[in-house]
Structure to design on (261 residues):
């Protein structure tokens, strides 16, 4: 079967047309999907956005806590002493952590076993503070959650699992840590997965509208998973690349067919 010159030319025209249509479609879709909170800031007007109230983290079995004692002479602190330099040394802090066991307890020097599962960080700090006050005066207890891990997947610059030191982490904090959304991210359909008891709940948030800031899932909990799916423009972009390759091949075929005559 031989390839006719007119058939190759028709194929070339069709491929060129499809290439142009797909390229223009991709550009048209891209802009309206990359602007955050469009309803508030596209008109450049200042405004106030109502933000949901963050609920305190409830400690669970398996949580790893960094418990630091601040404000007493080292001779008084003894085995309680944890260097403040540790906050910049993640590996060292992990080794110095206190893991909540399957029964919900940690075993802390001198004051013994303390049940922390089911308490907030504030409640846990108050409990240990009251126990320590019986042995050492003028000490301030500080507790940090070491396993505040958030996983960000999908259309972001750097997908992965990230550990946070602060006590409050919101959705934009996590996306920012992952390098922000790509140009092909579907910001209108951001999914947050959260494990609760024996099931996993999911919530969809729309970053194009300011409403997502008032959603309780705006504030993230340890081990939350964020998934940002691609827009159709990514499929168009991929197809455009394929059409570009086909167009190149067709052009070469046309050239070979033309010079062979």
């Amino acid at each position: 079967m031989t390839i006719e010159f007119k058939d190759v030319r028709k194929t070339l025209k069709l491929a060129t047309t499809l290439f142009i249509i797909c390229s223009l479609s991709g550009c048209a879709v891209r802009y309206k999907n990359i602007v955050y909170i469009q309803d508030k800031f596209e008109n450049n007007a200042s405004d106030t956005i109502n933000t949901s109230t963050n609920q305190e983290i409830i400690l669970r079995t398996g949580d790893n806590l960094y418990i630091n004692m601040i404000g007493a002479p080292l001779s008084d602190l003894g085995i309680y002493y944890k260097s403040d330099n540790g906050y910049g040394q993640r590996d060292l802090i992990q080794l110095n952590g206190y893991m909540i066991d399957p029964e919900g307890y940690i075993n802390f020097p001198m004051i013994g076993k303390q049940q922390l599962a089911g308490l907030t960080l504030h409640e846990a700090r108050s409990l240990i503070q009251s126990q320590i006050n019986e042995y050492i005066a003028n000490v301030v207890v500080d507790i940090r959650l070491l396993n505040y891990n958030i996983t960000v997947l999908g259309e972001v610059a750097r997908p992965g699992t990230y550990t946070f030191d602060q006590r409050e982490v919101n959705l934009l904090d996590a996306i920012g840590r992952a390098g922000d959304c790509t140009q092909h991210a579907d910001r209108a359909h951001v999914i947050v997965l959260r494990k609760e008891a024996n099931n996993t709940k999911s919530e969809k948030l729309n970053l194009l509208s300011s409403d997502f800031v008032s959603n309780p899932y705006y504030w993230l909990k340890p081990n939350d998973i964020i998934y940002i799916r691609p827009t159709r423009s990514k499929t168009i972009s991929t197809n455009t690349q394929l059409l570009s390759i086909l167009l190149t091949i067709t052009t070469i075929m046309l050239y070979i067919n033309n010079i062979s005559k």
User: Anything to note?
Assistant: Strands lie at 64-70, 98-99, 105-108, 112-115, 140-145, 149-154, 160-163, 185-196, 199-205, 225-230. The longest strand covers residues 185-196. Helices lie at 5-32, 38-41, 74-77, 90-95, 121-132, 171-177, 232-259.
